[in-house]
Give the backbone structure.
Amino acid sequence: MEENKVVKSFIEVFLAFYGVNELQNVKISKGSISGEAIWNDEPAEDNSQKFCWKINLSTEEIENMKSILEFIFERKLFHHDKISINEESLIKKLVSRGWSINNAKKTLDNIFETSIDMIDDAGKKEDAFFLHL
């Protein structure tokens, strides 16, 4: 299903900011995605983190977030989970590439409100992946 591809692709881009190399055991159901984030450059005992994201956005909103995150990632406008360009400058760059100001702001709000839960071995939330300015 196309929607599942969009969701998985978004998660791959989002977690790339944390240095994640691949996803394993991915399960997508109505309203959530879960799986394991893998870091290939870590020792085996420390190289994975289970995650779960409760999806409350449309496919179009997720595609928009992915597009902006790819833009930021490709231009190295971040350091780990922190976007290193200020919001006003980022919006100007997006507008110059055809985004409307309102859509850029709304999409950035969605990005900064996104929190992907880290799940411990007992199945409980222990922390979260997120991005910020």
Q: What stands out?
A: The chain has four helices and seven strands.
